[in-house]
Amino acid sequence: MKLLRPTLLLLSVLALPPLHAAEPPHHHDHAPAQLTLDNGKKWASDAPLRQHMENLRAAYAKQVPAIHKGSQSTVGYKTLGEKTETEVTAIVAECKLDPKADAVLHLIIADMLAGADIMTGKAPGKPAAGAHRVVTALNQYGQYFEHSGWQPLD
Asked: Has residue 15 got a pLDDT over 80?
């Protein structure tokens, strides 16, 4: 009897749905294997996405010269990584894109977060490589999403 109660408790906990199942659905099940256009056209974006991407672009544009020269400080990289995390969190929270556009966007922001992890020391790698990964993702955003006036970073 002593073993039966813990075993039943364990089985009942394992039978529960995962906690994330209570979250509102997000469109990750439509994820393409690679970046794609919308039948040859850029995907539609919305105002919150454009604003957060502008915020990121502005933050990186100020630091690109120091990154290229190799003079960016560890603190500078960490700050860029944290800014990336903050903006991507807001993008995900405010996401109102079509499921297919959302899936393409998630490929881009996955690269941004991977770069941010390197810059903040959460993942191994050189911070400059992490910054380069985010800059590349920002440029891809401009290639795949409508955003009037978007300028790629060098």
From this structure: no
Tokens of residue 119, six digits: 């810059």
CA distance 51 to 86: 13
Residue 18: phi and psi, rounded to 5, are -60, 155
How many domains, the chain? 1
Q: Which residue has the higher pLDDT, 11 or 48?
A: 48
In a domain, 8, yes or no: no
Quick one: tokens of 3?
């073993």
Query: Is 58 part of any domain?
Result: yes
Structural domain span for residue 105: 47-154
Is residue 113, in this structure, part of any structural domain at all? Answer: yes
Cα(131)–Cα(117) distance, integer angstroms:
10
Q: What is the pLDDT of residues 96-148, one digit of tens each?
A: 999 999 999 999 999 999 999 999 999 999 999 999 999 999 999 999 999 99
Instruction: Give the span between the Cα atoms of 94 and 53, in whole angstroms.
Output: 13
